[in-house]
Amino acid sequence: DTAVSQTPKYLVTQMGNDKSIKCEQNLGHDTMYWYKQDSKKFLKIMFSYNNKELIINETVPNRFSPKSPDKAHLNLHINSLELGDSAVYFCASSLRTGAYGYTFGSGTRLTVV
Amino acid sequence: QKEVEQNSGPLSVPEGAIASLNCTYSDRVSQSFFWYRQYSGKSPELIMSIYSNGDKEDGRFTAQLNKASQYVSLLIRDSQPSDSATYLCAVNGPAGKSTFGDGTTLTVKP
User: Are the beta carbons of A101 and B96 separated by less than 8 Å?
Assistant: First the structure.
């Protein structure tokens, strides 16, 4: 009975390819996020959606495009993958925007070769 | 200056000791503060949240907040080997975005 589930768990792909990561939460939370964790374990926010509306869009290359079809789902599509995109991508959700902690998904380890 | 800074670590304590993890933040309008635990190869897990000055205790964990000093800490009493993990401090601003520190890796030696 996973709270925040991401697929796939591992993704190995060649430079220049396009790939998607999917995230779903069954917690009834309003807000969802994408974070990138680099090799030094630093977590950096990429995007945030509140009830399907984009509310945070950090300085991220245009090759990254999030999409939220409903408040329980948040997907991340990456075009023209580069070596530097290799990282662990975490989806997370919170009850609402504001003073709430996050529930994280298990992460997607992306390796670009 | 980083928005959220933590002890660089790694931190090593013997089993049964108190582990003290520290975090400072730069944005004075920060409103809520969190500690996450991340085991190697796993996702971060929320273990403590604190919103007002003072101490908040939950089992063996105590979070301390001092907004005037822009400082938040986590104490782990009676440390166990299972507490060995990376601890992430996170700070939320008014927009609700969590900014994370680099993490402090704790090792509890039996």
Answer: no
pLDDT category at B28 given cuts 50, 70, 90 is confident
Q: Which of A9, A3, A11 is nearest to A92 (CA)?
A: A3
For residue range A40-67, what is the model confidence (pLDDT) as tens digits? 889 999 999 999 899 988 889 999 999 9
Contact between B63 and B71 (Cβ < 8 Å) = no
Q: Which of B23, B33, B39, B43 to mutate to test the interface with A (most CBs of A within 10 A)?
A: B43
**Contact flag A44-B45 (C-beta cutoff 8 Å):** no
Q: Give the chain A residue whose CA is nearest to the CA of B38.
A: A41
Q: Which residue of A has its CA nearest to B104?
A: A41
Q: Are A63 and A78 contacting, i.e. CB atoms less than 8 angstroms apart?
A: yes
Judge: B100–A100 Cβ closer than 8 Å, yes or no: no
Specify the DSSP class assigned to residue B18: P
CB contact under 8 A, A40 and B102: yes
B74-77 own/partner pairs: CB under 8 Å, 24+ apart: B74/B20, B74/B21, B74/B23, B74/B35, B74/B48, B75/B18, B75/B19, B75/B20, B75/B21, B76/B18, B76/B19, B76/B21, B76/B106, B77/B18
